[in-house]
Amino acid sequence: MLAAALLPLLAAQSPPVKVLISVDMEGVAGLTHDDQVNPKGPDYAIGRRLMVGEANAAIRGAALGGATEVLVVDAHWSQVNLVPDELLDSVAVPREGKEVSVPVSLFTGRPKPMGMMQGIDASFSAAVFVAYHPRAGTANGVLDHTWSTESIADVVVNGKSFGECGLNAALAGEFGVPVVFLSGDRAACEEARDLLGGIETVAVKEGIGRNAARTMLPGEARRAIEAGVKRGVERRREMRPLKVEGPVRLSVRFRNAGQAFLASQVPGARLTGPEEVSAQAPTFLEAWRFFYAF
Ligand SMILES: [Zn+2]
Fold this sequence. Notes:
Elements: H1 2-12, E1 18-23, H2 34-37, H3 44-65, E2 69-74, E3 90-95, E4 98-107, E5 124-132, E6 152-157, E7 160-161, H4 164-174, E8 179-185, H5 186-196, E9 200-207, E10 213-215, H6 218-234, E11 248-254, H7 257-263, E12 270-273, E13 276-281, H8 284-293
Parallel strand pairs: 1-2, 1-5, 2-4, 5-8, 8-9
Antiparallel strand pairs: 3-4, 6-7, 6-11, 9-10, 11-13, 12-13
Helix pairs in contact: 3-6
Bound molecules: zinc ion.
């Protein structure tokens, strides 16, 4: 009887709003040099401190925008950059006349089969990309690369060049989850809008070449990210997931022929140029597994 009496109450409750925040480092305000983002670099401690500041701003923004639960994914290099006790573990926000606590959890370390998007599934309402960088070969793109500066020159999915924003947005799209926000340098924001349409973006710096930029200072960048993520999460129903239609042809152009030869040994993959390996799969999720194996 009690359970039956509770049913209408439960039905009246708003559904959960889970938000995944994937945090990279090259697109953090103030960072322009490999020494600041390479864990072995002399200025990595600075990069790390600024990264967690932007991650916390995004967490606050997601909670203020309506998230009921936040999952943060450490998405840079070794993927152990965010020091857990420096990350907000919950955010108190006013909601429907009372204060509620929005819990936060963290995916850290690697390898993770879904990489920078580990944990994504159809239960999420929105994905948020913080401190992303432009794809390899972008003019005036601060610290531009796609996955690995040393080994990958380009990734092409069904004829379109995809950087990390595209690959990760397509992974979210496989589960019907839209990307609602991206921050990074100006080139990364342009790349995201070109691919994803009218998502919220915050350009925290503008590159001159690969290793110099005019940049927001951290306080301003964090305020802008918090406000942008809030707007993005609020507007989540307007955003369309990026759906890559199958069959999916994925090609990777490597930096040298030796790397391509090794990748071509993955079953189902073949050399399609001296430095290029391609694979075909029925869905993007399966094509992604080829990429991860490469
Ligand atoms: Zn990175």
